[in-house]
Amino acid sequence: MTSKDPEAPPRVGLFVTCLVDLFRPTVGFAAIKLLEDAGCTVEVPLAQTCCGQPAYNSGDRKDARAIAENAISVFEDFDYVVAPSGSCAGMLKRHYPGLFSGDPDWQARAGAFAGKVHELVSFLSDIRGVRAVTARHEATVTYHDSCSGLRELGIRSQPRSLLASVEGLELVELEDADVCCGFGGTFCVKYPDISNAILDAKTGCVEASGAGTLLAGDLGCLMNMAGKLKRQRSRVEVRHVAEVLAGMTDGPPIGGR
Amino acid sequence: MRITSPAFKENARLALADPQLQQALGNVRSGFIDKRETAVDALPEFEALRDSARAIKDHALQNLDLYLEAYEAKVLASGGHVHWAETAEDARNIILGICRSAGARTVTKGKSMITEEIALNEFLEENGIRPVETDLVEYIIQLRREHPSHIIAPAVHVTQAQVEADFRRVHDHLPVARDLSEPEALLGEARRVLRSKYFEADVGITGANFLVAETGSSVIVTNEGNGDLTQILGKVHVVVASIEKIVPTLEDTAQILRVLARSATGQDMSVYTTVSTGPRRWGDPDGPAEYHVVIIDNGRSAMLGSDFQDMLRCIRCGACMNHCPVYHAVGGHAYGWVYPGPMGAVLTPSLVGVDKAGHLPNASTFCGRCESVCPMKIPLPRMMRHWREREFERALNPAAARYGLKAWAFLARRPALYQAVTATGMRLLSLLGGRKRRLSWLPLGGSWTKHREFPAPEGSTFLRQMKARARP
Ligand code: SF4
Description:
The complex is a heterodimer of chains A (about 260) and B (about 475).
Chain A: E1 11-14, H1 18-23, H2 25-37, E2 41-43, H3 53-56, H4 61-75, E3 80-83, H5 86-99, H6 104-116, E4 117-119, H7 120-127, E5 136-143, H8 147-153, H9 157-164, E6 167-171, H10 187-190, H11 192-209, E7 213-216, H12 219-231, E8 237-240, H13 241-245
Helix pairs in contact in A: 5-6, 5-8, 11-12
Chain B: H1 8-16, H2 19-41, H3 46-62, H4 64-77, E1 81-85, H5 88-101, E2 106-109, H6 113-117, H7 120-126, E3 130-133, H8 136-143, H9 160-170, H10 183-200, E4 203-206, E5 210-212, E6 217-222, H11 226-233, E7 236-242, E8 246-247, H12 250-264, E9 272-276, E10 290-296, H13 319-322, H14 325-330, H15 341-352, H16 354-357, H17 359-362, H18 369-373, H19 380-393, H20 399-412, H21 415-433, E11 438-439, H22 446-449, E12 454-455, H23 462-470
Parallel strand pairs in B: 1-10, 2-3, 2-4, 4-7, 5-8, 7-10
Antiparallel strand pairs in B: 5-6, 6-9, 11-12
Helix pairs in contact in B: 3-12, 15-19
């Protein structure tokens, strides 16, 4: 199924991630638009669910592996597998192969699969060479570096440089942009008070930045930060970076206005 | 030392509600991070040094028996004594024996985490021997009858005003009207009080940052020079160290020192690096008459060859906790034992058992900042996850969490069912979100909504919409 002709548009399987699927389909549609604009053929396999992080990070390797087998089987024939999340892409790329240690066949499949996986924004910029997008967003925005994308996949400059090409957008740097927002998957409900203390420091920096819009590349972090900002009655609007890059900002922001 | 790690949640709650602690923790959030970054940026070869430091320790750990024996032979040849302690209790008894045969009533101590681990001070006191901490900050901790909350800055949880109050309380022989408002005044007073103690002490006890197999030397780094005084003014010098402190050569030591201080405090080098080899020899201007090394296992050899072996590379620089958002929020005492922060979250379960310390590796967002700054490139999040796996295998985590996870995993492996269930759930949540597009309260989601709103889903799930589109 892999395209043979080097000139043919690459076939990209969109791993939409469970949170985007359930909570924010707009990000999925934004990802399709951005990938198509970058010359890719995009397919969305319907047999996808989740990357398995909740199981993996709770110590349940067995279920994590079963979920990984499903994802690999569904996606391994694409030229690329792209996810609009650094955390899920990191899971597929950096952690899947380790789940199959001691099983050479599956490990080889997981390794080959991992080689095809990319996070959306870094894929556009590093693999497809996209330097500018055609979008408009009249706002002062700030950007939070989600941990897995930043540290597992080295995503830092890519979203900033693509955002710089959005008409009307002014990017201001967030203090401590590279510090965790306190989400951490199940961490935020297992240790709500600690999570809240970390989150409080983050939203303090967001307010201090003076930006009207907060962006990031991971829906988990975004829901966490949006939830706090709204509880604090902040006017800051929160969106996934792909929505802005694709010019799909007509709908309400995450957590409403 | 009593382990309060099982009460981590309660410890954390108290810590978050303690304004003085929160004020003191502000210093960790700012100072250490910037200083380290400046020091690292100034050294282009820092990354290469990290790799070489890691390789040195990995090699030493792979040949640990060999190097420990070589080290012992060298210590004996230099006229020193080596004692092997399998457990904390063995170590305490050995040290007490050495103190007793020296007729010691007072011992001075240099800063050492391993003596905290084996709860040496309490034990010596119970046996009629007075331990005096000579590191300024350890001295403060001792005055407060507390334990360190950080491995290199033990009193980072204490504010300057609290130190002043402690000094006025304990140093009651000094004039009440003296000015202690500046840090220098506090330092000067501690110096003067401590100086006399050095001369009273019969035994000096230090830890070791390195045990050098090549020469039989122990090496400590300090910023106050108190380690030097501790070990040369007593008649007897006792070095207490755990097995993984071994490095093959002095050259290796120098190599690792280049990453140690930079990672810890952002200094190029600590102010004092003291190498001691055996007792005083003929012609030496000073030094102890007796030199003892107590080498402690206390659970470490069981980590060799396990998923946790890499943890034994740790050089106790503290960078991981300095960069940890959870440590920043709750401080070191909440972790409930000797070692806090990410390194404690891996080491504590290894040494006291995951049944007691299970919260520690769970209380992490896996943000990965610790691993990114660890000079020894220890994969801390990965090992915390290994601890979660051990807990899960032994069913130590809460039943509700396990069943919830199992139910979710059951669905996640069955895409069609998963989509049917989630589509209904999301539609409902979306309706509940109303015009505001958020919920302030969620059934079963109280842990989330306690502190934040819950953003409502848009409505129909993405995959539902794609499926509808795919239909001709
Ligand atoms: S784990 Fe790494 S960063 Fe933490 S104290 Fe040890 S050597 Fe330093």
